[in-house]
Amino acid sequence: MRTELCDKLGIEYPIIGFTPSEHVAAAISKAGGLGVLGCVRFNDAGELDTVLDWMDANTGGKPYGVDIVMPAKIPAEGTQVDLDKLIPEEHKAFVERTLRELGVPELPEDTVERAGVLGWLHSVARSHVEVALKHPIKLIANALGSPPVDVIEQAHSHGVPVAALAGKAEHARRHVDNGVDFVVAQGYEAGGHTGEIGSMVLLPEIVDAVGAPVLAAGGIGSGRQVAAALALGAAGAWTGSIWLGTEEYLRTMPSSEAMQRALVAATSADTVRTRIYTGKPARLLKTRWTEAWAQPGAPEPLPMPLQNLLVSHAHNRLHEANDPGLVSMPAGQIIGRIDRIRPVAEIFAELLAGYDEALERLEKSR
Amino acid sequence: MRTELCDKLGIEYPIIGFTPSEHVAAAISKAGGLGVLGCVRFNDAGELDTVLDWMDANTGGKPYGVDIVMPAKIPAEGTQVDLDKLIPEEHKAFVERTLRELGVPELPEDTVERAGVLGWLHSVARSHVEVALKHPIKLIANALGSPPVDVIEQAHSHGVPVAALAGKAEHARRHVDNGVDFVVAQGYEAGGHTGEIGSMVLLPEIVDAVGAPVLAAGGIGSGRQVAAALALGAAGAWTGSIWLGTEEYLRTMPSSEAMQRALVAATSADTVRTRIYTGKPARLLKTRWTEAWAQPGAPEPLPMPLQNLLVSHAHNRLHEANDPGLVSMPAGQIIGRIDRIRPVAEIFAELLAGYDEALERLEKSR
């Protein structure tokens, strides 16, 4: 399995693996793909710096990248305290009532709470870029489209290419006009922020719309799906959700056992596209928490970044509840394929073998 | 392009084309695929008989099939007059008000109105099967899952295999348990009745769930997409929406010019999955009519078959309005690819050429 992407990124196989876990990212890079570390969890850029030091020491010199979350439109800026004032009381009351009705326990009194995600404030995302460019990264991807032109130029001045997610051909065209090097065509099936056009339709549309290489995202978790993505014209595959079901993920986030149990139990029908996580449409694991927000009478989610601040305390309580039915987690439809927790290398080897099998099958059909 | 499906159906290429137009169906069969004629438009089985006589005379002896719409659960039966009584006044008032607000003209006084679609009543669908089995059909497909076991047995006793649409792996398994010969895995992208799981995820899931050959539906309109479908494990492609943009379609439905103009103008983002057409979720072209039903305050659509009876008069008026912005038409996301009205044979030739190109590209990546 080899495309132009391999030469451009210095990787063996055209498989990119997005993950918030440095242990997963390193394992993907060591397997011959490109591990891309999600930065949005680092409210403090110093923390990211430490983790990238760990990456530098643990990827055996193999290339890796980072993923930032920089919205095209600059959202409300400010400290968590300032922003909290913009959240309506009705919304706070709904969250409190819902947690009570779902039987989610209060946090123990001595808990030091994890703050809400601020990584999608431009100020914080820019600090991620600053820090990342001090490390030997091979890619900066932006999960919310094209970063500002000056950020792209900053990356290019360090010789680092930039990738941007797109859910429509017109967005992809705009990204490339801004100087983006790779477009990640993210289909409806994908976890996290995603649009409404399915991968089967979106991918060739974006391939035809832009001259830049296109990575296929959304619904990819097997070698057959990588083959389909390449048949549709992609230069490589962008994978994400399948890496949530790995041993390495649990090493970074040891308290994610309930989430992994939920993934193993879930079918491809057990996700939902909703604005309740960040304020923008994102696909999440369907749980009693997401269902509560879909009931008549539930408030409309707030815009980014307020919605996540609204639910950040709830996320902490849901996480502590340690109940697979109450997990709040971005995940794509491919999670229906996760039937046990495995090492990254095993999944990666299956992607390669499945790809070869698919191509052999196709060749027989000519 | 050749798979086991070709031998099973006696066709040259594993491409099935669903269409309500006999002219399109005949052209697909003559091009080497299998044209499948949608029967739901025939409230009178005698009309279907006449059209199938025409097919027998105009397919040059090439195989063709028919598509019926038989819900798994038997819907309310009755004449149109009986059923009309079950429709709430609130709904009738909304339809009337919406047509007025959209500026849709009344029908001329001497119009003989086309009745609502009754083809999905079991009684009518059974009459379609009776009539179709008197013709040399090679396939009966059911757009709403497995037909009743006795209908499958009736088809088999005439040597005719049965295909059934599925939007989930568990449904596919049930269809095959009932005796269905082929499963049509219909992804979220598809036009008409469709589920929520994208083709990229759904297709390999259904392939692995059943032993029967699987046809890929949803988002297929180019050879690259046929190659992707086969890479994902399909034995063939089930196409539909792309044939709406053909010269042959206009020959059967000469008053569909506004619809075709709407298709040519539409992008892949211009469809919506809604219950307003039949009562079950179906993907339609997004127009001012579908948008009106998405407004706050619009009533919830009624169950099948009442919803279509509710809107059948509106459909006639919308059709007569001859305005691309007011069309009511099932269509999949692939319509973004329709950029002009062409002959069936030209589209078919492109499917074959695009497939070969995709395979050549893939072979280079090994």
TrEMBL record, chains A, B:
InterPro entries: Aldolase_TIM (IPR013785), NMO (IPR004136)
Single GO MF descriptor: nitronate monooxygenase activity
Keywords for the protein's UniProt record, in alphabetical order: Flavoprotein, FMN, Monooxygenase, Oxidoreductase
Alphabetized Pfam families for the sequence: NMO
PANTHER family recorded: 2-NITROPROPANE DIOXYGENASE, MONOOXYGENASE RV1533-RELATED
Protein name: Nitronate monooxygenase
Species of provenance: Amycolatopsis alkalitolerans
